[in-house]
Amino acid sequence: MSNPRIIVALDYSTLDATLALTKKLNPQRCRLKIGKELFTHYGPKIVKILIHDGFDIFLDLKYHDIPRTVARACRAAADLGIWMVNVHALGGRAMMIAARKAVNEGDNRPLLIAVTLLTSMDQITFKQIGLHGNIKNTVLSLANIAHDSGLDGVVCSGQETTMLRDQHGDNFQLITPCIRPINSDQGDQYRIMTPVQAIIAGSDYLVIGRPITESSNPIYALEAIEQSIDQYQRKSY
Question: Quick check: is 177 in a domain?
Fold first, then answer.
């Protein structure tokens, strides 16, 4: 695949466990997501190792701070040679514009995307933290600000993908986490979808972690997901 749609979330705390999986994966078939736990343990070292191994890296640190601080962090991330980095849309327009300008300055220009609302958030939590209205309208509002700030796309649940695709067209990248194959454990996620459901809804990339990384056979789990997507795409042509 020249543009693999599956992003494997590396839900590991050790370098050995991480590399035990990634050595079995093909960079032509998937990308990798490095989150806070793995990056906190190993920092830029793990990013450089996996880029050297040929993988596109989504650095999922969800920057959310004053514009100057976020801009500098995004520039530092871009200098690592990553494929994608994200910020929190709740940081506001000025923060996102500063981040966009920062990633545009160097030779390596990663995709810059915004997190709207965490996919673990339900309506009760939404109200508890003082937000008004509903999740769907808030996601749309935050995505609109990200789009107007020049970002490349947003992280959103599959339940909001069709709405955002209709609003912003095909060039706005939609990255969907909390993907759970049929019969998988829901875990701590609420707004979930199967891989095929997310593709049908309009997702560009699917972030899949525990169904692969916690499987007794991670490679088989990844291949099963790929096959389900391939079967759907063949039927749709």
Answer: yes
- Cα(92)–Cα(207) distance, rounded to whole angstroms? 24
CATH code, domain carrying 203? 3.20.20.70
62 catalytic, yes or no? yes
Give the residue from 204, 131, 124 showing the smallest Cα distance to 164: 204
pLDDT, tens digit, 9 for 90 and up, residues 8-47? 999 899 999 999 999 999 999 999 999 999 999 999 999 9
User: Is residue 205 a part of any domain in this protein?
Assistant: yes
Q: 93, 100, 58: which is closest to 75 by C-alpha?
A: 100
Tell me the pTM.
0.90
Residue pLDDT, tens place only, 132-175: 999 999 999 999 999 999 999 999 988 899 999 999 999 999 99
Structure tokens of 220? 């088989």
Q: Could you tell me the two tokens for 47?
A: 């990013």
Q: In Å, how far from its chain's centre is CA 159?
A: 15
Find the catalytic residue in 33, 45, 62, 235.
Answer: 62
Domain range for 199: 6-236
How far apart (Å, rounded) are the C-alpha atoms in residues 215 and 220? 9
